[in-house]
Amino acid sequence: MEIIFWITGFFAAFLGNIAAFGISSILLPIAVTVFPFELALILTSIFHLFGNLGRIGFFRGELKMRIFLLFGVPNAIFTFIGANLVGSFPEAVLKLILGIILVLYSILGLSGRELRFESRKPYLILGGSIYGFFSGLVGSGGPLRGAMLSSFGLTGGAYVSTNGGISFLTDITRVSVYLWNGYLPREFYWHIPLLFIVAITGGYFSKLAIDRMESEQFRNIIHLAVLLASSKIIWDSLVYYL
Questions:
Q1: pTM of the predicted protein model
Q2: Which residues contact 229 (CB under 8 A, 6 or more apart)?
Q3: In which domain, by residue range, is 173 found?
Q4: CA–CA distance, 181 with 175 (Å, rounded to integer)
Q5: Domains contained in the chain, number
Q6: Residues 6+ away with beta carbon under 8 Å from 233
Q7: If we measure between CA atoms, which residue out of 187, 176, 173, 189 comes closest to residue 132?
Q8: How far, CA to CA in Å, does 94 sit from each of 78, 83, 86, 170, 241?
Q9: Mean pLDDT per segment of 10 residues, for the chain of length 242 residues?
Q10: How far apart are CA 105 and CA 240, in angstroms?
């Protein structure tokens, strides 16, 4: 049964690295059928961390440090604020609003009327703050981060690398907390090098795919990924009330 986890991990790394989000969404549902929940959570989180390392490494020359800092630092601050406000707002309603906004954004992009913003300081700080707040509050930040970064008109490599760097900051914090709380028993330590190998292998093949894509093809894939992910957010929100 565990082989299914590793096969899914490879495809999650491949698809998730192209979109620069979604690894956990693909892998975690499978992981919880193979391992106890806490173990599945930390294995998926470590895999996600290695996936982001791959994004940074494979496209290291294209990481936009200015965007990384101006978007990433406010993101970290407002993630903390949002996380401390969990329960203060109706989560399902917030997810529904977020999902609808992202669906509209992705439809505009797929129809050729993509929203574009210059990567100026105010836009980056505001974008990082909004993403961080929603990420901390409702835990559905990946599609929003992808939508915002794609609106700055980055090349495929710059988008993947910068996105991975911002996400890596969150992964470091999350994995540290899980390890501190003892989610990874000693007998599962041997999974760590395998997680690294599978994540990097999937990331390598995604790099080959991205290098062959034209910029318009790449943006359409991002819009489609955002559309699918945000549709799931809307569905989950509606199911909550049914």
A1: 0.73
A2: 21, 22, 25, 102, 142, 143
A3: 2-241
A4: 10
A5: 1
A6: 95, 96, 98, 99, 102, 140, 143
A7: 173
A8: 16, 14, 11, 21, 13
A9: 89 79 77 86 89 86 86 84 71 74 75 67 86 70 74 79 84 81 89 95 88 72 76 78 68
A10: 24
